[in-house]
């Protein structure tokens, strides 16, 4: 109710501001980027709150009527011409050089800020401005490929969105069958790990006694879940996804459940891609579950490995013999998991390779290759187990040869694991996973001796 009241109040201020400015709402015709940029300059020139809010709303409305070429031109001009005020920056540098003190340093800091950052702040004041800016950043991401000149603009947008969407603003809410239909529909639409086919499928995910779903919300996007987590309550740590999603399955009595399995975690807003919501979101879900179900002992994921097969096929540092590569061509056969002998041969190559992928392989910048791994290890999890043929869906076989992994969240170790990964890039892993890597080491030695 408070959010709705505040939104209505802003809308009223905006509409009255339009009257003060003598502007009507823009027509639904094609807009020109140059006219929109002139409006941005006017917004930055400094006006009263009502007229500024109205002008910000008009900028956002007109932006939506730009075609793809117009949006690219708009972004390129913001990147090129809406940087720092050069005259103010030069004066601040001169003052700092003449006498280095705290005031001059502060002046230098503010003078070096690009004008587009203040423009983005003012656009955020419009009714619905935060959500609009997230959507605009999604457009920006689509246009950045092949347009490196937009990188500076994206850094400024990310800088501001990171402040507005930090963990302190996020609210955790449980989603169940009684949640509003518009939110349930978004859970179906945004599910990115295991497709939800229809409303019946959704109900099987959130309604039974051994299922939970939680979502993080931001006050400025009250009906838009930013991240949602689907949880299965089980007796033991699972190694395959199919039994958890089966239509005909026997629910686990809550009193027998000892494990909470995070089997699907989906980000819903593309415009917030690459923006960290903090490193302990899953810990918050764990604490919520423990309050409700104190008998739970294990908190684990059952996670896909979306980058594995791409790395196997394309990376230069994959430890494979020619014979191994020839064997891996068998993965192109759609029924290979049903051939027990072939599956055993492939497992001997792929399981140790998966351990190498997580523990040793890195991008040129030294980062873990797998985005899912980066998320969970950054949240303080331990790489617990590699599960052979955990996902037999076409997507799972294509992306990871069916391999899934368990990441273990142990409350006493979350901060320690997070610090090890954040500070040194160390992947905390179980002895089971490390033994697989040792097996790979022996195989590599055999390759060199052979």
Automatic annotation (TrEMBL):
Domain Malonyl-CoA decarboxylase C-terminal residue range list: 168-409
- Signal peptide region: none
Supply the name of the protein.
Malonyl-CoA decarboxylase
The protein's matches in InterPro entries, at most eight in alphabetical order, are given as:
Malonyl_CoA_deC, Malonyl_CoA_deC_C, Malonyl_CoA_deC_C_sf, MCD_N, MCD_N_sf
Q: Which GO terms describe its molecular function?
A: malonyl-CoA decarboxylase activity
Q: Which organism is it from?
A: Bradyrhizobium macuxiense
- Name a single GO biological process: fatty acid biosynthetic process
Q: Domain named Malonyl-CoA decarboxylase N-terminal: which ranges?
A: 82-165
